[in-house]
Amino acid sequence: KQEVTQIPAALSVPEGENLVLNCSFTDSAIYNLQWFRQDPGKGLTSLLLIQSSQREQTSGRLNASLDKSSGRSTLYIAASQPGDSATYLCAVKGSEETSGSRLTFGEGTQLTVNP
Amino acid sequence: ETGVTQTPRHLVMGMTNKKSLKCEQHLGHNAMYWYKQSAKKPLELMFVYSLEERVENNSVPSRFSPECPNSSHLFLHLHTLQPEDSALYLCASSQYGQGGYYGYTFGSGTRLTVV
Question: Is residue B35 within 8 Å of A92, Cβ to Cβ?
């Protein structure tokens, strides 16, 4: 059974700082990995999707890397802003044969960027 | 309307009530999901409807009953709920094609409180 762990559970940083969020998964046979953002009481917004054959994806100030063999992904946020404050969720999708369409989520990292 | 729309946004119900959550997707996707998000826990898949599968999480109590009348609409019927069922219920959709499932999009969720 796939398990996803995110460290740290919470992070508070001053504005402008570069930061790294970590995600690890127990079964390296994944199809892809996705990072989401969730604002309080809201749904999930997809940030970056990395296919199993890829090493990283970039979107603006965000960069996500994937090391499938070690079961790790990182989300790098450059020059953080107060508007980045949210919970960041990592989700992995296994192969169609083993897990169908389901995503397995971590518990998230709650980020607070202080002005 | 675009994306995935969930109604109502908030719901307070007594343990003897019957209510339904509604989800509608405007993306042309062919798979829809119900996820449950409880405090301090990872998102948990409850049900999947797609052309390829209908998955029921065996740990979901029978007081939750899904209905998917067509590929654009998904309902979650609730009856005789317990206070521990209070959570954020998220609907999602995705597209199943030759390459597998992709394009996961989440709604804003229904915040359910059982009193």
Answer: no
